[in-house]
Design goal:
The complex is a heterodimer of chains A (about 525) and B (about 400).
Chain A (H helix, E strand, L loop, with lengths): L6 E6 L3 H12 L4 E4 L11 E5 L2 E4 L10 H6 L9 E4 L2 E4 L5 E4 L3 H11 L1 H25 L11 H17 L2 H12 L2 H6 L5 H9 L14 H9 L2 E2 L2 E2 L2 E4 L4 H13 L3 E3 L4 E7 L2 E7 L4 E9 L3 H8 L7 H9 L6 E8 L18 E4 L3 H12 L8 E5 L1 H4 L9 E8 L11 H18 L3 H4 E7 L1 H8 L35 E3 L13 H12 L8
Parallel strand pairs in A: 1-2, 1-14, 2-11, 6-16, 14-20
Antiparallel strand pairs in A: 3-4, 5-10, 6-7, 8-9, 12-13, 13-14, 15-18, 15-19, 16-17, 17-18
Helix pairs in contact in A: 1-10, 1-18, 3-4, 6-9, 8-13
Chain B lengths: L2 E2 L3 H7 L4 E5 L2 E6 L5 H9 L1 E5 L4 E6 L3 H8 L12 E7 L5 E11 L2 E6 L4 H6 L7 E4 L4 E7 L3 H8 L12 E6 L2 E6 L8 E7 L3 H12 L4 E3 L2 H10 L43 H10 L3 E8 L1 H9 L16 E5 L2 E12 L4 E9 L8 E8 L2 E10 L12
Parallel strand pairs in B: 1-3, 4-14
Antiparallel strand pairs in B: 2-3, 4-10, 5-8, 5-9, 6-7, 7-8, 10-13, 11-12, 12-13, 15-18, 15-20, 16-17, 16-19, 17-18, 19-20
The chains are: A alpha/beta (about 525), B alpha+beta (about 400).
Amino acid sequence: MGRVPHYDAIVIGGGHNGLTTAAYLAKAGKQVLLLERRDILGGATVTEEIYPGFKYSVASYVVSLLRPDVIRELKLAEHGLEIVPLESSFSPLPGGDYLVRWADRDQTRREIYRHSPHDADLYPEFGRLMSQMARAVKPLISMAPPDPTSLNPKELLELAKLGRYFARDLEQEHFYSLVKLMTMSVADFLDEWFESEPLKAVMSSSGIIGTFLGPRSPGTAYVMLHHFMGEIDGVFRAWGFPRGGTGAVAESIASAARSYGVEIRTSADVEQVIVKKGRALGVALESGEEIYARRVVSGVDPKRTFLKLVDESHLPSDFVEDIRRFRIQGSSGKVNLALSELPHFTGLPADGPHLRGFISVGPSIEYLERAYDDAKYGAFSRRPYLDIVIPSAIDPAMAPPGKHVMSIFVQHAPYNLNGGWNDAQREAFGDAVVDTLAEFAPNIKDAILHRQVLTPWDLEQVMGLTEGNIFQGELSLHQLFFLRPAAGWARYRTPVKNLYLCGSAAHPGGGISSAPGRLAALEILKNWSKPWSS
Amino acid sequence: MLRGTPFHSRTSALCEGQNWRRWAGYVVAGSYELTHEREYYAIRTTAALIDISPLHKYRIHGPDAVRVVDRIVTRDASKCAVNQIMYTPWCTDAGKVLDDGTLWRLDEQTFRLTAAEPNLHWLLENAIGLAVEIEDESDRIAAVALQGPNSREILKLISDTDLDTLGYFRLKRAAVADLPAIITRTGYTGDLGYEIWVEADQAGRLWDALMAAGRAYGILPTGILALDIARVEAGLLLLEVDYVPARQAEVASQTSTPYELGLGWTVKLDKGPFIGRQALAEQKRRGLKWKFVGIEVEWESLERLYWEFGLPPQLPTEAWRESVPVYSGRQWIGYATSGCWSPILKKYLAMGHLRAQYAKPGTPVKMEVKVEHQRKQAAARVVKKPFFDPERKRA
């Protein structure tokens, strides 16, 4: 047929995971082409100057899960990656009160003590348990998940190792805690520890971020743990802001990829994965161009990959059913603001260290649950949960001198909005966010110079994330580990030979971790000489 | 921002070196002068005034107060007479030390417990269902230590009570500088000394009165750097330095039982049930793998090590607090956790955890020292604690 492969591998999608996979494959000596639909790299990990002089981390806004091995192995520091720690978490409360958790344990203790002496004593213990749990789960995150139903001796061996680890190395009480974390709602789990409402609220919010769930939904305790796995320089539970915005993370990976010889083409929209006799041969672009390669790796989500790019006729029907059922409804939006001045939160100074960390608007569990209630029935939250950072307070180059940018992650905003998303709904959603924020920082409305509102629908249109899901699929337990994205297909392979997945929809899931990208590349390389066959 | 203690208006005016150290969420003076040397000698030769307000303090009051306290601490609280004070650790179920402090009996139904760490939740959790009230008095009560051979004479000048009859580890309610106070015959220096406890809003007046009364007796405001040397000389443990409190341990091997810390004398296995009793009884039966001992580094050995580089022995000016390996021959047998040059004993002292078979006083060991950027081993031997134990402490 005259189809001499042009490349060893084609990677579809220039998000951080696609870039990571491309870099690892090229580092191993492969000829790699990466294709990005947009004219800018990064996918949801992108910095753009939407309003002149103001740089928005348009979608993703902080980094913590980025694997230290990726930073080390791809030499990302040499390629310009600089992560500044975000050390505090500030929750404004009604009536001008607040709760701040600082980097310093004594300061945090005193602050929590103000709300509950009981919780002040337990907070450090809880943190230790979570870091022990994060360490316990870390081996899972760093490996390609073995399939428990497989009879492949290698997978059985890995399972046995894992079993021995849980049976022997994990202390009994830690095992119990792990089971609780895997099954409980974050609110119930925190109720076992704490009494202070603001503390529980701010801690539970990490259990619902990016999910279509409320703090009382079972399974959210695990999502909280997922966020505790953030690690900077080997320290668990550390979050950071990449200098230059999250786009700088993608740029540093792209720079590493180029240094290993990856060819990167932007404005290259892949329309189809070319499959013949159950084998991926290459891709066809929207322009009609066909490019052939020995392997095709998809960094885009499984719905887009298997229900759009690959013709269904090449796939087993039960697999197609699994992918159709894969829960992916986006539930969060993003509002980016250009500000003439810092927000002034009632009860606190106009400027201060509380503005240089996370700002979390969600004062009680009930507030968060009600925000979810709205979404359950197809509306955006009238008073949403807001997770805010002010990038320019950390990196002044993000805005003109003295001016600021604010990044507001908003939950909930269901993809399937009653009546559908349109311009009027988008603006109404933006207004709900600003109104909510103005309850705590009254000067905000007058300070806004420009506002960018992104609904899940926009995230789908702009970034190509199906239904606007920031994790390429819900991080619920039935969609994790050997079930991600579908039972039996967790090791980055797909029912189409030579077609692999490398995005957040693959194990271990979302966040700027680059873990799926790295593990996918390692798995592809491991099987290079002996292409997988069914 | 960290808090100053109730004495901060006074201590900050005196702290010439701006040498502030952190202690339980407060800042306290490391030393008031640019070096802590004079302050150390004040403890041992005249009188030192030390702000100890950051200690956590809890009031346990009610008909079941003895039961609650006895459930928690390893000492026998029922034997603690009114106005008596007991030093005691308390443990987890596994017998691992959580914290240590002093337990005071204020009356039949009232105790005060001082602690290095927050313990409110631990106390409340263990008081469930019992008729007792527990109050965190930490911020309400200010405390200052007056330590040194002249401390009694100074305190006599401004208190209305007979100090000659106040025995070691006993307390008295008294007026000090006309302020209602509790005087305890306690301290962290191993010297003659008292601690004076008042309501926080009266701290300034107490400080002023003590400083005025002590002027003729060589009183010096003293920071915690000098105190650290004194406490090593006295062989007194420091939480987070000499042992990892069980609550903070990342892995179980980091924790210690009272027996392993040389506090076996505080464990009253036959007093009735208390938290950790079973595990401690078991350990007592089976014997110890580790012991906490005093170590004295031999001067001649240090001298030889430095002599090789043409240098006189260089001694630590401050007490150090880091883990230092200890060997027997080539074998690692444990680690020292704090140490200092004792200016009064003229000895290089350390304390540390050694495998039990090497813990007998007199056993020769080797402690790592860094000499001119190189790791060397200085000859040392195991010695009894306390290193410094003057008669006046109890007299």
